[in-house]
Amino acid sequence: MTTTETENIDTQTPVLAVSDVALATVLEVRASEDDPVNTALKVAITGSNMTEFTYALELLPLSEADADDVIYTQGDHGELTVVIPASSVARMQGSMLDVPAGGANGGLVIRNPNTPNPLEGLDLELTGELPEKVQAVLDQAVNPALASHGGFAALAGVDDNGPEDVKVYVTMGGGCQGCAASAMTLQDGIKTMLMEALPEITEVLDATDHSAGENPFYE
Q1: Is pTM beyond 0.70 here?
Q2: Which residues of the chain have pLDDT under 70?
Q3: What is the reported pLDDT for 215?
């Protein structure tokens, strides 16, 4: 490893920490590279699936790291060099690369305390009465995110009892109907999007019949 390759390394403040078991997994895979010692693990945020960030992990020669990347080592003896692109640093700060609970399915997971802003980058067109605005948020923000999972959300109704009691009822269909993760999707994703875009909403409720669908979870 040359001086140029190591001058940006900071071992004191890792953006993404690597657990011992994840470190062993990465090092095992890296061992098949032509030059393992000078091969780094690059982890970048590529987008979000409404409630969580999505990531790309790759092994690459350390010499290919960009000048503004954050570079540091992990392991008791600095066995692994980690590269985080500058654009991902703030959103990945304090996260951990680990293995799934129980390690039953293998692979790696990133446990990130930061969550995406579901409306970031969206220029919503919200006009009309509240039901029309809710439908616009579903059409423009929620359903494009759910489409990757084969699901969708639809407005079931609005119960407006005044400024302190505005309830929105949503049904979930496709892959979201009966899905075990649908409650989290509604709570952390759909509810967050609707209430962020339309502050007058005080509650978002699931009106879905989760006992129906192709793979019902709630029976």
Answers
A1: no
A2: 1-12, 50, 103-106, 118, 120-122, 148-149, 175-188, 209-219
A3: 45
Residue with tokens 């969708």: 152
H-helix or E-strand spanning residue 215: none
* Candidate CATH numbers 2.40.50.140, 2.60.300.12, 3.90.78.10, 1.10.3210.10; the one for domain 3-111: 2.60.300.12
CATH of 130-206, one of 3.40.50.170, 2.60.40.2230, 3.30.300.130, 3.40.1190.20: 3.30.300.130
Phi, psi of 134 (to 5 degrees): -60, -45
- Sheet arrangement for strand 203-206: 151-160, 166-174, 203-206
Closest CA to 9 of 83, 79, 60: 83
Residue 113: is it exposed, middle or buried by C-beta count within 10 angstroms (0-12/13-18/19+)?
A: exposed
